[in-house]
Amino acid sequence: MTIKIRAAVAGLALMGTAVSAQTTIEMTTAFGQNLPILGTAAVDFTNRLNAISNDVEIERYDPGKLVPTLEALDAVANGSVDAAYATTGYWQGKLNTASLFAAVPFGPEAGEFLGWILYDDGAKYWQQMYDDAGYNVHAIPCGVIAPETSGWFKNEINTVEDLKGLNMRFFGLGAKVMDKLGVSTSLLAAGDIFPALERGAIDATEFSMPRIDARLGFHKIAKFNYFPGWHQPSTLFELLVNGDVWADLDETQQAQIETACLATITTNLAEGEATNYAAMVDNVENNGVTIKRWSPEMLDAFEGAWTEVVGELSADDPFFQEVWADLQDYREGYKTWSTIYLPRN
């Protein structure tokens, strides 16, 4: 973190007028600015905060400019960088509970998820996860996107047998489900996926929503795009700030950052909802993609494997069990509201 005085007011300081210093926070990102919605969310957050605040500003860096994407949590915690815009799902290998604050298979959609995070116990557990594990970070919800696709495959998938033996890029808790069904999964950063598909290192991939996936060109190699994205009905994103950096900010600076994040949550969700259908149409009409829906039997297989994964994680990790139980209790209450106001097919 650096402290600076804007040139526009430097002259006032020379004349003896009191000028307050501005705090600059250097922020790494998990997604490049070339990616719509995912990458532009961090750009929008940065521009929004810098526009409304004379007290604190963000200097945003693309993935890898400061630290590799999957090292961002450790880098923020140890103070190598001030902050990171990322998703907790990238820390699944370090923290069993991480993906419960990113995307939950067969879990809540965006509105329900945000309710748990912002008005129930979600945010409390989110921070506790880092604190209990000794990470010196402050976590702020800072984005959410609509459902993803279930993946891109080079060949049609009709049965669980068709999945067995595939090498596939997969994210978060959904990867554990696919592993149970005979898929060998790996977590690759956005820029590494297409080359891996092209050279045959992976046979299939999931990444994000149709508009975002289009930018990465998966349709050039894998022509079968499956729905629904059972593994990510919605996905949350976070702003991680080094704990000491956060403590050094005053209440106004902290509030400005939190307000910019809340605004980013809104635009992040709305942009995806508004623009994905056009990408789906383009895929079919111009890219030779076949859009497929999983059969009820396949969805049952995914959900059955997910139930096994949850049972194992809960048995092995008391904190995971506590958070999972809290989320399930919240969702049971939410059904009272969700099942009455709009019947679902």
From TrEMBL:
Xref: InterPro entries: DctP_fam (IPR018389), SBP_TakP-like (IPR026289), TRAP_DctP_sf (IPR038404)
Listed Pfam families: DctP
Major place of residence: periplasm
Single Gene Ontology MF annotation: metal ion binding
Signal peptide from the UniProt entry: 1-21
Keyword Kinase recorded: no
Superkingdom, taxonomy of origin: Bacteria
UniProt KW keywords: Metal-binding, Periplasm, Signal
Signal found in the keyword field: yes
GO CC annotation, single: periplasmic space
Gene Ontology biological-process annotations: transmembrane transport
Compartmental location: Periplasm
Binding site for substrate: E148, R169, E206, Q232
CDD domains the record matches: PBP2_TRAP_ketoacid_lactate_like (cd13604)
Protein name: C4-dicarboxylate ABC transporter
